[in-house]
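Troubleshooting log. The previous run stalled partway through. Resubmitting the same two chains, unchanged.
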Amino acid sequence: MRTPHIRPSQVVMGLAVAATLAITACSSSKKDSSSGGGTGGGGSLSGQTITYWASNQAPTVAQDAQVLQPELDKFKEQTGVTVKLQVIDWAHLQNKILAATTSGQGPDVLNIGNTWAPSLQATGAFMPFDASAFAAIGGKDQFVASSLATGGVPGQDPTSVPLYGLAYGLYYNKAMFQAKGLQPPASWQDVVSDAKALTDPSKNVYGMALEGGSYTENVHFAFIFGQQNGGDLFDGDKPTFTSPGVVAGIKQYIDLMASDKVVNPSNAQYSKGPEAVTDFAKGTAAMVMSQNNADVSIQQSGMKAGDYGVVAIPAPNPVPAGGKDIGTFPAGINLSIFKNSKHIAADEAFVKFMTSAAEQQTLGKAFTTLPINTAATATWTTDTAEAQVFKDALATKSAPLPLTKNEAAMETAVGQAITPLIAKAATGSNVSDDDIKSAMEDAQAKMPAS
Amino acid sequence: MRVTVGTATATTPDTDDVAANRRPPPKRRQIPWSWRKATPYLLLIPAVVLELLIHIVPMAIGVWISFIRLTQEYIQHWSSAPTAGFDNYRIALKFSGPVGKSLLHSFEVTCSYTVLVVAFSWGIGLVAAWVLQRPFLGRGPVRTLFLIPYALPIFAGVIIWNFMLQRDSGVVNQLLVNDLHLLNHKPFWLIGNNAFFSTAVVAIWRQWPFAFLMIMAGMQSIPNDVYEASAIDGAGSWSQFFRITLPMLRPVNTVLLLMLFLWTFNDFNTPFVLYSMSVPPSTDLMSIHIYTNSFQVWNFGYGSAMSVLMLLFLLLVTAIYLPIANRRSRHVVL
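Second attempt completed without errors. Output:
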């Protein structure tokens, strides 16, 4: 038997066949997917299926699905559109969005943290809401203006619209404060002195609970306390993480655990969700700083509405030079539509449904969030004083996180630089201004050059 | 018989060449193509295409990305991203700057982690295989038991360690502090410097069964006659281990150590599952470092540059290691 002999022409031919096979394989799969889903467009929406990525709003991902599914069924009844729901936890949401953006294979509609809006807008993956898109989802005017402003960078059509409104507040345990004869804190000094009075490590009770291992929480407080100390994270698109005000703000936050010692060191590991809030609800921490959706977790862990009070997170008194009396930012969740969704009309109908006054009231109650539709009444708490505190904080003590395309990168870089500092404080070391400054230098160096 | 067949096929191309050259050229052109000749190459095509798609193309794209400024503005249409030349590499290798310094730190952490994990995985695997080599009652079940960490899905195995190593609720502190009173204060295992050792322990736990499996297979191929002959010559267990088992395992160990080294150096799963998004600096392994500096801050060009550097380092180590290890094993066998 003679073995076959290769000639160059045969090799070329083989490769050509291989390439043809590969190309046909690719193109046929593309054709399949478009013909499979290509029924979108004009006419009835009925029979279409869209995929929706929801963020984790309830204490657990399973509870999110329980809340959302009946509403999605209602939407199907109204429009005939089936919504496939996936709830994604916060640790992975940004990554999944980024991967979907890169590959072009994403959901049709998705939730984003509203602070990421400008960064995600820059990717060009999301559909800009122009005049006609706004008309399709019920009009620009239905949205609360300050919430709508988080949809993207100013001067461009936003690529997201608000879905849930949230704000930070300082929750305190009324009974624990009364037992020590303390008043709700009016300044940061009060927060620290009250927390010290309420801390008793021998009984495993602490004045304050923190989600110390969560990069998103850490960066939020870096922003709020930075603002109180006159520090801005950006000068235009240029990061300024090492500015004295930012460093002082981060120190004010970390000192709760480091020098004030009013936080259980174990909190340095808290990163999986409402662990700090659960500590508060169980009475092992007298205060916790959280967004208003903490109410669900607090009440599920056994505390009743009225057992706890809320004040805006106070600034030091007097407010440091250049600083502002800021206690929150317009936090919340926005909805975006993937630009290459094949069911834009169905997506818009779904966005219209989710942001409608009726749904805002239903979902606002379940997730304890502030309505973003001006026609909806706040249903998230029966405690009118609590509702007023958050409303006032948003109106008078709020500054938006920087609306720049590098915001999302900043959140990760700064948030992840603070986590080890808290770990350092937890293991008993002091955290100095220089430690913070050098951590912020590293974080700044990681930022993409703009 | 087989040997002759092998040599025959091996030499056929040469004789065929000679024969082919004698034929006049026009005759060859008459049959430019035949199914019979093409069949082997057609059969190879799927493998070649898949190899290209799975290995070569992504690798080439990765190298290309390292030379462009790929940020969020361009991830939808990569090809329009501006070129960066060697900028990404320059930043990564400027060890006086904060970025280069942290890369160097990550490299050092990864090296110590690799040495620790490979040494212990291999050592424990070797000892376990040696102990289980002699038949005894229940040897089968014990072997199976030893393989469990390797057989468990990575996530399930590592997340259990995460629970065990929690400061307040973990069984490790329960055992050390509450039950045995070895320590007065509950230490943190998953933050600070202890995290390095926690991660290494988890990685060793996950990897030693593989070393055990490979070494056990290697030991079974050592003929019993050799042991019997050495026993007659008066060799004891130790002497058999060091003079027969270890040298005869050398071919297995050569490959095994290289695989363990490559896997451990590239280890992403263990720290990622153990720490999720907040990996402590003491455990900042290269793959995690690249991930946090690239994906999480949306700076993909720089991340690719670091990946390419890591690839080059691993290639270099492999290129130095394999010839040395092979030469030694040849010396031993001959």
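Takeaways: Chain A has 17 helices and eleven strands. Chain A touches chain B through 56 residues (CB under 8 Å).
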